[in-house]
């Protein structure tokens, strides 16, 4: 599924984020930036040790913030590492922190002249964020950003598994 926001494109695909040919891919990292499981592990495995070297130099990242490294051996030139919130009960600022993770990743991309960026579904794996709620925040934040920042030409959500893709598609339809 694909929609236009002004001249920019927002697309939803099922797939593996490590294979994307966008200028940047986003990692759902943890605060230590030392790698981990899920999408984080997959990105470090596919991208090689240079990414971790840069992450160690950077030192860490607060929840809702974003940092940038090389893409190492990936097709993408850059990896933007952001830290989504660990979901507790939705009453601990989780929605705002998740929105910040997406928006700060996009802001960092703009500041580096990045034109195309791929996101995974941040916080909805090990961090336990309910998928439907997280999808809505992810999509609204990306759409709002693209309205205001046409410098980003493509935002692609790369969703692991058909079920996750279907939830994102269901949430995108009423926003179009
Ligand atoms: P978090 O700790 O932020 O919850 P996870 O990596 O555990 O991050 O999960 C986030 C989402 O990324 C989940 O929907 C998971 O299925 C998905 N995911 C895992 N590996 C990949 C991959 N290679 N490409 C895209 N998405 C992935």
How is this structure best summarized?
With about 180 residues, this protein is of the alpha/beta class.
Task: Please characterize this protein's 3D structure.
This protein has helices at 38-47, 49-58, 94-111, 131-148, 162-172, and strands at 2-5, 8-14, 24-28, 66-70, 78-82, 116-119, 154-159. It is α/β, with parallel strands linked by helices. The protein has one domain: 3-Layer(aba) Sandwich (Leucine Aminopeptidase, subunit E, domain 1), CATH 3.40.220.10. The chain has a seven-stranded mixed beta sheet, with helices on both faces. Strand 6, helix 4 and strand 7 form a beta-alpha-beta unit. The mean pLDDT is 98. It binds adenosine-5'-diphosphate (ADP). Residues 16-18, 28, 38-40, 42, 84, 120-127, 158, 160, 164 line the site of adenosine-5'-diphosphate (ADP).
Keywords:
single chain, 176 residues, alpha/beta, Leucine Aminopeptidase, subunit E, domain 1, seven-stranded mixed β-sheet, 5 helices, globular, binds adenosine-5'-diphosphate
Q: Name the hetero compounds present.
A: adenosine-5'-diphosphate
Tell me the fraction of residues in β-strands, as a range: 15-25%
Can you identify the CATH class? Alpha Beta
Strand order of the largest sheet: 1-2-7-6-3-5-4
Low-confidence stretches: none
Q: Can you write the helix and strand succession as a string?
A: EEEHHEEHEHEH
Major sheet details: 7 strands, mixed
C-alpha geometry? globular
Which architecture per CATH? Answer: 3-Layer(aba) Sandwich
CATH topology: Leucine Aminopeptidase, subunit E, domain 1
First-last Cα distance: 11 Å
């Amino acid at each position: 599924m694909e929609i236009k926001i002004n001249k920019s494109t927002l697309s939803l695909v099922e797939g593996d984020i490590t294979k994307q040919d966008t200028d940047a891919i986003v990692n759902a990292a943890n605060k230590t930036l030392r790698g981990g499981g899920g999408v984080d592990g997959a990105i470090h495995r596919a991208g090689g040790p240079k990414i971790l070297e840069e992450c160690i130099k950077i030192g860490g990242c607060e929840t809702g913030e974003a940092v940038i490294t090389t893409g190492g051996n990936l097709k993408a030139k850059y990896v933007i590492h952001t830290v989504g919130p660990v979901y507790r009960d939705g009453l601990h600022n989780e929605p705002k922190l998740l929105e910040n993770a997406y928006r700060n990743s996009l802001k960092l991309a703009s500041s580096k002249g990045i034109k195309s960026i791929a996101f995974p579904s941040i916080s909805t794996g090990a961090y336990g964020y309910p998928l439907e709620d997280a999808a809505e925040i992810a999509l609204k934040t990306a759409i709002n950003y693209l309205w205001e920042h046409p410098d980003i030409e493509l935002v692609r959500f790369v969703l692991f598994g058909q079920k996750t893709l279907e939830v994102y598609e269901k949430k995108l339809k009423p926003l179009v």
